[in-house]
Amino acid sequence: MTTFKLVLEYDGTQYAGWQRQLNVPTIQATVEDALAAIAQTRLTLVGAGRTDAGVHAFGQVASFRTDRRLSQREWLRALNAHLPADISAISVEAVPDHFHARYSAKGKLYEYHLMNRPERAPLLRERAWMLYKPLDFAAMTEAAACLTGLHDFSSFETAPTDNENPQCRLQQADLRRQGDLIILSFYADRFLKQMVRAMVGTLVEVGQGKRTAPDMRTVLAARARAAAGRTAPAHGLYLVRVDYTDGSIPSLP
Q1: Which of 101, 89, 29 is CA-nearest to residue 65?
Q2: Nearest to 79 by CA among 97, 93, 100
Q3: Which residues, given as ranges, of the chain have pLDDT below 50?
Q4: Which of 47, 96, 113, 133 is deepest in the core (most CB within 10 A)?
């Protein structure tokens, strides 16, 4: 048996998220169907994390084990021949047997895209959250900086969840502009359920003047979901990268 690490890029618009579910299309089930067509047997795909319905990915990581004797290149070409147009296998790599796409991960990078202009953007209607009134970019940047560090992020965790550890080490919470597009980047060792979307929703309230930047510390300290803002729409969220080494982002002391 060989263990393979698979990197996937996908448009999540037409899918009910990553995890396999009955009677609805999911990313996991679609890729497993492609693997089954190649291997002529069912293979189980383990993902680095569960993305919600409508969430996209540039670099979702998954792993599978098989005794089918195909090279990395052959797996890659065969997968892309069987996958639909909105999912692509970017790489396939043989890895040590102890590799686990979820439990071996050391950090993840997410991006959230906000389109901030008076007119709608038809080409981004399922790729970014449309916000038509001007946002206070400086205040949002200041508020985001309050979130970095090792914290209990219960205020940004959507229930119900079976998670028992609300602590995450958020190493990066940055904003940048590309024209009218505002991109928020978050890097952490782990994320809670819908944590990024809840942080974005709260930061948007800062940008709208409904909260001040220092309020973010109060929200964190409350450790209650009701203290934070709304959950941002799923279609603006992208899983960019999953790291399995320390990478280039230094650890906080």
Answers
A1: 101
A2: 93
A3: 247-253
A4: 47
Burial track 71-99 (b if 16+ CB lie within 10 A, e otherwise): eeeebbebbeebbeeebebeebeebeeeb
Question: What tens digit of pLDDT does each residue of 79-104 get?
Answer: 999 999 999 999 999 999 999 999 99
List, by residue number, the catalytic residues. 52
Return the exposure string of 179-194: e unless at least 16 CB atoms fall within 10 Å of the residue's CB, then b: eebbbbbbbbbbbbbb
